[in-house]
Amino acid sequence: MADWLFGEQCFVISAVMPTYARADVVFERGEGAYLFDSAGRRYLDFASGVAVTALGHAHPRLIAALTAQAHKVWHTSNLFRVAGQEQVAARLIGETFAETVFFCNSGAEAWECGLKVIRRHFHEGDQPGRYRVITAGGGFHGRTLAAISAARQEKLVKGFGPLLDGFDQVPFGDVDAVRAAITAETAAICVEPVQGEGGIHLPPAGYLRALRALADEFGLLLFFDEIQTGIGRTGPLFAYQREGVAPDVMCVAKGLGGGFPVGACLATERAAAAMTAGSHGSTFGGNPLAMAVAGAVLDVVLEPGFLARAAATGEVFGARLESLVGRHPTVFAEARGVGLMRGLKCRPANTAVIAALRQEGLLTAGAADNVVRLLPPLVIGETGIDEAMVILGRVAETLAGGEAAS
Question: Does the predicted TM-score (pTM) go above 0.85?
């Protein structure tokens, strides 16, 4: 702790910069869908590190892949070929619209790479005046200056101005507003296929397809942010595949590394043709450790039946949440989501609900619009769903002041 003066006030700052409102719990180990704290208490983890630990904790195949690679080589930089990058890129290309992949360390970096791909595409295509990106209100793309400038939420941007120019925001789901926002300077449209941080908002039917049509009509690039929705979270490997419409650029992270920091920017050859040597880079991005883990994650989720099982479990979970809302309407206003990306819009403050659930042994995450996010690992089974529903019902009864037991 260190004392310092600002004006006439004295402040004490912690050794770890206090940018998080952390819960007072320390986890020492994890196993599958469970975490164990320093006192030995077990928690059912339906936060998954905010949709990161897609295969749960201490998955044996991820441990094996990481351990094997750790005995070989950790880091060489991108001054040399990295075999793991070539292998993982080929897997991602084979499963998506993409024809090329850039690896980095986080979702924000992957999103920034996508933005650079877009600007470079038009600059090298003799259209340097086309640089603006249309974004959706309620969106979230990371915490860099460009990402918060794109999202333009007060809680993200306060104190960090002036914001970067180049973004035009319209309401999520409003195709007419997107059309009206297109100008001669517009380069791309960027949206999350399902908004996560914004409150688990699904797009209206046909929205993504309409954006694809607008992009084609006006010669724009379509940029999907699948940082949270990717790697089976909504059912298929990527959420855009639910509607059968492909972007030109896409950023992914979170579940791709299963807990190891991995991000990737995927693009078509046409979109990324101008990304030549020296145009972008990352010291740590796609190092051998990261690629070993990402490869193992893909090995698991692409096994026959895995995604179908996760999607089926998600449907069961969604139906159970709808029933919960029906039984406890004074606590929960609405159940939202798809696959294993679910949310409950609360009537009490979502922070109070999250704290009560944690006290009962269920970990969840907050989101905008007073939503509690429920993001279990993709390996969760119906037994885990049953356990979560018992806790949700018990907390709802307590918060309602004695409603009928669930």
Answer: yes
